[in-house]
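Contributing new records

If you add data, match the layout below exactly. Sequence lines come first and carry their own label; structure lines follow with theirs. Keep one chain per record. Anything else will be rejected by the validation script.
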Amino acid sequence: MGLFKKKPDPVSERERMLDDQIASLEAQIKQLSTRLTEPGSAPAPSQPRLRSTAIPHGPTLPAKTAPPAAGPEPIFEEVGSNPFQPAAEPPAPAPPSDLGVRKDGLASFWDRLKRHLQGPTTTNPKLVNYLAAGSIQGLRPLRYEKRVARTRFIVLVALLILLLLGSYFALIRH
């Protein structure tokens, strides 16, 4: 019965087979190298004669005497130090005149306020879409988070109004 018999490890068995093959190949290499170093021994007729292609034995090409006449010199363009740098921001608007006339009206104030409340534009709109739709597992959708924040704000404002009304009526009675 083979209950307590250790199973052969296939990796070590394969390693032993490869070691045997390496040893036999090294023995063949040693045998062939001794055959070549013996004087008067010729290579076996079954082996083809090979020639090295590192040093050509035939005629070589003559060296070029002069390069062909080139056209006009190339014109190179000046390139800034970082061509991938974003474009410079537009120049700042001119300061208001000293005459006391106000250039900015209500419309420009409203635009500035909207830009300030919107925040910066996103650099990765695809990620924003994923977050808004709730496509990423483990994260709540952005619309849900907005709804929770809006409800919290409304409840806090209602409590503040009730607190102010209560304090107002308490002062009127006294």
